[in-house]
């Protein structure tokens, strides 16, 4: 009877060990499937990267040929793009110069310099200065808007 009980316990332990092994095998299988999916994604990314590299090499080799560059330079779209680029850069430079001149002539800038040179006596004095600078700034903004609307109407 004792032998049967011992055999029964051994069989139960073997059954539990087999179940644990089965669970471990299932987990390993899931891990292998995840690794396989990750490898497939990496392969797709490498393929896309190599096709981009191939395209870049093709463009590089074409643009290093003098004849191709000359033909492109003589084409209408490239000439037009160059004209638009030159026009935009020139307009931006002129606009920047006009803006810098306006800022240097600005009453707000002068007032900030004057107010910064004086030492405030108390908090009320600082508040009054900030309010005056803000009022001057707002009046200049309004004047700029009026000038802009006049320029648009012309």
Description of the molecule:
This protein is mainly alpha-helical. The chain contains five helices and no strands. Helix 4 (107-117) runs antiparallel to helix 5. The protein is flat. Residues 1-42 are annotated as: Disordered.
Keywords:
93% helix; mainly alpha; 154 residues; flat
Brief digest:
By secondary structure, the protein is mainly alpha-helical. It has 5 helices and no strands. The mean pLDDT is 76.
Helix proportion range: over 70%
Largest sheet: none
Q: Based on DSSP secondary structure assignment, what is the total number of beta strands?
A: 0
> Mean pLDDT, rounded to whole units?
76
Distance between the termini: 115 Å
Low-confidence spans: none
Overall shape: it is flat
| Alpha plus pi helix count | 5
Write the layout of secondary structure elements.
Blueprint: H1 2-63, H2 66-74, H3 76-105, H4 107-117, H5 123-153
Region (Disordered): 1-42
